[in-house]
Design a protein that fits this description.
Keywords: Hydrolase. Residues 66-267 form the Amidohydrolase-related domain. By secondary structure, the chain is of the alpha/beta class. It is built from twelve helices and twelve strands. The strands form three sheets. The chain has an eight-stranded parallel sheet. It has a two-stranded antiparallel sheet with strand order 3-4.
Amino acid sequence: MDIVDAQVHFNRFGTLDTGLAMMDAVGVSALLYDEYWAFDERSRILPGYELPGGAFRHVFPLAEEAALRLPERFAYLVRFDRRDPELDRLIAAVRTTPQQKALRVVPWTEQGFGEFAEGAEDPVFAAAQKYGVPVFVLLPGRTDSLHRYLKKFPDLPIIVDHCGVELTAGRLHDDRLSGFDRVLALAEYPNVSLKWTHAPRLSAQGYPYPDVLDMLLRVVEAFGPERVMWGSDHSESKDHHSWAESLFYIRDSAALSAGDKAWILSGSLRKTLDWPAS
């Protein structure tokens, strides 16, 4: 079975060979590499550097190396500061740079979420639509603020990260499902997909997460399996569950058809990012 993980901060595993051994052990054919080292003192994602005008230029050296060495197993996403004076050129280049497949927008701070809701990321979304570059966006529990972008950029593939709900450790299970109906409502927009990442954290029952599987069935019914993509984010979720557990409750489920699994576990991501299997 072709299995493609929609998000892993692969650099956090150590060497490339170590990470590849982990992928092979779990049965992951390929993955989307999101290079993330840490946050700096201003909550900016590293690696990167500040430009003279104050914008932050992100770089992706390890993701690029992995994708160039093993393009059949790695593609990667990029992120750009909306204030970057070369924003249009940088986003245009995604379409011609080998294995760069998408952008990711991560407001992260309270100020960032507020600015996002007011339309601050319009320049990024506009350039992404202009050049046909899909955008992943992290809005935990704040998906209402995405509607303006979905209406304004109807031809842009937009993927909602991490089930669209809050995943804060220690919250009561019922609280963790707050806002899920608002996530399902996004299915009305044909250009939006949902990345089913970190979902086991929502479970009150443990592996094989029957309550989370029920939620996934609702998502599939609303969006269709072709707009749902599985991701582990194992580099950040390993404190709660294993990489295998994040995958096998879906792969081995009798509640999902073989066709549904093919879309969720690889087909949706490959189609959205125009990344055919080798």
